Structures are given as structure tokens and as C-alpha cells.
Amino acid sequence: MAVVVNKPLPEFDAQATGGLKVSNSSHQGQILVLYFYPKDNTPGCTTEAMQFRDKYADFVKAGAAVFGVSRDNMKSHDDFKEKLELPFELIADTEEKLCHMFGVVKNKIMYGKKVKGIERSTFLVGPDGILVQEWRGLKVLGHVEEVLKAVKSMKAAQKKAA
């Protein structure tokens, strides 16, 4: 089952750092930001993680939980999280279940060879479990601010509706 904007997330279960289990219903009532990245400890992924880290308090204030997702294993994630002092958890999708569900596995050309890789993408899920917005094939620069802006406007819309 693939994800579709304006539809509920399909059922899933995933393991994150800190012994946390994440599922389609584990963060009901909370805005959820899932950002997929190619690999721990690579330049672009390190920059993106640090930008989410630096804006993390703003995400929490706006009512959002943030999770980074890659195919790296838990040990790699624990080391990456500790090294960068990340305040959010990282999901180890070693079997690519979430990556395939969110459609972020893409063929890439690296050093002249075709390889399967993760397309840098972010997904914004509303408190009701519905996928609200997606950013695919994105550039790191300015992206975290754009996601934060979307989270804040979602939070403002919730307040008006209440």
C-alpha cells in the first residue's frame, strides 16, 4: 500500500532509536514529520539532520514529532544521533518497508553505475493520521524552514477550528 496525499497512512510498525516503536497510530493527535534521507554521516544528510536539530524546539512548540528515516541499522543511527546531538529519534528501515511504502526508493547513477538509493523526501502527517503534504527529490537548503512553516500553519488552522 502506497501513501497518498489527503488519505490516512497505511498501517506500519517501525523501530526507532531510544527503543521507540513508531506506527501509523503511535502519534495520533500529534503532527508527524517523517524525513527520509540516503545515509548516515554523508555531507547532505548531516547538514539536513543538523538543520532539523537546530529547529527542533520550534517543531515541538508547534506540536510536531520529527523522525529521520534511512536504511541504516540501529548502531549506525545511534552513533549518528550521538555525534550530532540529535534531539529526535531515527527510524532504522533496514528492510526498506517504509521506504517502499512512501515510494522513496529510486534508481540513481553513482560513479557511472545504476544503484538503488533513497530519494531525499519529507512527509507531513496531520494529527488525524492523514498525509497532508509531501516534498520529494528536495534540496537541503531552506527545506527545514519550509516544513516548519507548513507545520505552523497546520497548528494555526487547528486553533481556529477548535
UniProtKB/TrEMBL annotation:
GO terms for cellular component: cytoplasm. InterPro entries: AhpC/TSA, Peroxiredoxin_AhpC-typ, Peroxiredoxin_BCP/PrxQ, Thioredoxin-like_sf, Thioredoxin_domain. One of its GO terms (biological process) is cellular response to oxidative stress. Its EC number is 1.11.1.24. It is an enzyme of class 1 (oxidoreductase). Signal peptide: none annotated. Residues 3-156 form the Thioredoxin domain. GO terms for molecular function: thioredoxin peroxidase activity. Keywords: Antioxidant, Disulfide bond, Oxidoreductase, Peroxidase, Redox-active center. Gene3D superfamilies: Glutaredoxin. It catalyses: a hydroperoxide + [thioredoxin]-dithiol = an alcohol + [thioredoxin]-disulfide + H2O. It comes from the Bacteria. The active site is at residue 45. PANTHER family: AHPC_TSA FAMILY PROTEIN (PTHR42801:SF4), THIOREDOXIN-DEPENDENT PEROXIDE REDUCTASE (PTHR42801). Thiol-specific peroxidase that catalyzes the reduction of hydrogen peroxide and organic hydroperoxides to water and alcohols, respectively. Plays a role in cell protection against oxidative stress by detoxifying peroxides and as sensor of hydrogen peroxide-mediated signaling events. Monomer. Belongs to the peroxiredoxin family. BCP/PrxQ subfamily. This is thioredoxin-dependent peroxiredoxin. It comes from Comamonas koreensis.
